[in-house]
Amino acid sequence: MESAEELIESTLKLAEKNNAAAVLISGKLPFPIETDIPVYQLPGNTDTFIEGFIPPESGSLHSMEKNLCREAKSYVSDIEKAASIEHVIGKMKRGIVVGISISEESVAIIFHDFSKSVLLNAMQECEERISPEVMRAAFRLCLEISEAGREGRQVGTAFLIGDHEEVMQRSHQMILNPYSGHPDDEKSILEEKNWESVKEFSLLDGVFIVSEEGVILNAGRYLDVDAKDLDINKGFGGRHVSAAAMTRDTVAIALTVSESGGTVRLFMDGKERVSIESTDRLLKNN
């Protein structure tokens, strides 16, 4: 595997020269590596040699091992998603991420430029309406709900963010609003101490209504919208469809979590802009 070793060494030098944000490793490296760049090991290989190994912290990087062992197209797609998610939740700076995937038969090298990311470009469009801090906090919260569920079972929910006055006029409350009467600092999604209550209320039917400032105004809210002529996947459930329709009829942005698959989706202007699969469940199902 001499040629593979030479390829990996050359890749690391090139990554250092281009000031890469991180190196993502999938598979067993044939030799120890040393680099000043943060190195992330995707799971499934406890005998990989990495100096200064950084364990993944979010449920995104640590979920890609089996996907990265597919054909080259999947290599690229999975590295892009993993790196983009890590950037959105604040784990990596903007720039280049290098992926190295190793199997007995081959070595795949991927250079991913954040500026080309579908997820990041969609988030930037959202941030023209909603502050980056609010969008990223909501995205991280959805990932946690997707990966961890609640009370031992998977959870589906949705967040309508922004244009809250219009969204409120086009929706109604079917249960007592659990956030009624609480101060704003106890309802802000910018405060991680409040996330446990959000996860608990995600078990309720309906959706969360969130202001542009990140304050949760309502939980268990039902959306009164007509989904006729909505151009989205026909297999979506009612919550996804109504959330998507609300983004068509208002300037709100919707983040949804699928109960059946754990997929996190972003809707804007009535269209699905981003779809991120629940990577924890992908590992469990393989």
Question: How is this structure best described in words?
Answer:
- The protein has helices at 2-17, 72-88, 118-126, 132-148, 164-169, 195-201, 238-249, 279-285, and strands at residues 22-26, 39-41, 53-54, 96-102, 107-113, 157-161, 171-173, 207-210, 216-223, 253-257, 264-268, 271-276.
- It is α/β, with parallel strands linked by helices.
- It has two domains: 2-116, Pyruvate Kinase, Chain: A, domain 1 (3-Layer(aba) Sandwich); 122-285, DNA integrity scanning protein, DisA, N-terminal domain (YojJ-like (1), CATH 3.40.1700.
- The strands form two sheets. A seven-stranded mixed beta sheet has the order 7-9-8-6-10-11-12, sandwiched between helices.
- Strand 4 (96-102) and strand 5 form a beta hairpin.
- The chain starts with a helix and ends with a helix.
Short description:
Helix content is 32%, strand content 21%. The chain starts with a helix and ends with a helix. By secondary structure, it is α/β, with parallel strands linked by helices.
